[in-house]
Amino acid sequence: MNYVIIGNSAAAVGCIEGIRSVDPDGAITVISKEPYHVYSRPLISYLIYGKTDEQRMKYRPDSFYEDNGVKAMLGVAVEKVDYTKRRVLLENGEQVPFDKLLFATGSAPFVPPMAGLDEVKKKFSFMKLDDAKVLQSELNPESRVLILGAGLIGLKCAEGILRKVKKVTVVDLAPRILPSILDEEGSEIVRKHIEEQGVQFYLANSVAQFHKNTACLKDGTELEFDLLVLAVGVRPETKLAAGIGCKVNRGILTDAHCATNLPDVYAAGDCSESLDITVNQQRVLALLPNAYMQGETAGITMAGGEKSYNKAIPMNAVGFFGLHIVTAGSYDGEAYVVKEGSNYKKMVSKDNLLKGYILIGDVARAGIYTSLIRERTPLDSIDYELIKEKPQLMAFTAAERAVKLGGARNEN
């Protein structure tokens, strides 16, 4: 059996380990445009900050490929996939045959057209290790950095570079920061905390025109900068999959086994869509743990085993300048909110289920809330009032506690 994986991040690792749990002998080939051993992408801001190094960024040990009998073709781009002849065509002219194929192609920066952007000489993305390396090489104590985008990527970049430059300014079209994961109250808490560190925001604003190293905003403000970071958004890399007939919405459509509509073709990670159980809709759930679980599900299935990925929820665990944030699920429903200084808790329930939560500051035991969402635990079967105040196992029935502590199986 020839297994081929296009991409080399968390989804690829999950797939490799999933395959090997079922098939110890089949040939596995990983093909990646990046020349690096698999690394944890969320850590690139910590590399610039100085909190980690390239060795510690590795998602698996140096011997990972060898230990798992994987042929790693790194620094090689795929030109196209020939599904009829079951082969992957590389830009260097090589061809790699496959019996089972996984797209783990991730996502790429999305840069909307902006007048004068071509005049900006020093502009950067912030998604890959090479992006961080190039940006780091340009930073100096007198640098004025303009970041377009107040989402997770833009703000992690701001955190990573702030102490190394003169000034960091963030511009976003949205009226608040982190709009995809925080509500208005939560966003305000985090924005104030980041502003206190020295980052300046221009929200509900955008660049109308660039003139070399000056950005003219739509409200008339002119911002001078030395380096520009484009963190406006990302798009799933679906071109190769669409080219062979895989169904694609925003991401590649997959079922509970991470299979596409084409036999023997799978997709996992940021390039794919899966069912978000909190809203019962297919969505891209771009998060490293989700990517790994999708890849593992695909790998086990590709190798003939049985595995389903049917508890997918959007979730983020992140911190900015020492302020921790954990969010999960969706926020449509009845809200319970507690705010004390920089600590903020919002829990949203609907139809006797916990649907989502936001924790800022004190994020202790967030895993209990996440478990309630993933397992669709009926709230009338637990002491929800106690759990809202203090997440703890004693709020569960004795049978549920036994399951969560690993002492019994949940037969539901």
TrEMBL record:
Its EC number is 1.2.1.58. Residues 2-295 form the FAD/NAD(P)-binding domain. It holds the Pfam family Rubredoxin_C. One of its GO terms (molecular function) is phenylglyoxylate dehydrogenase (acylating) activity. InterPro entries: FAD-bd_OxRdtase, FAD/NAD-bd_sf, FAD/NAD-binding_dom, FAD/NAD-linked_Rdtase_dimer_sf, Rubredoxin_C. Residues 314-376 form the NADH-rubredoxin oxidoreductase C-terminal domain. The keyword Zinc does not apply. Transmembrane segments: none annotated. It comes from the Bacteria. It is an enzyme of class 1 (oxidoreductase). Keywords: FAD, Flavoprotein, Oxidoreductase. Its cofactor is FAD. This is NADH-dependent phenylglyoxylate dehydrogenase subunit epsilon. It comes from Caproiciproducens galactitolivorans. The gene is padH.
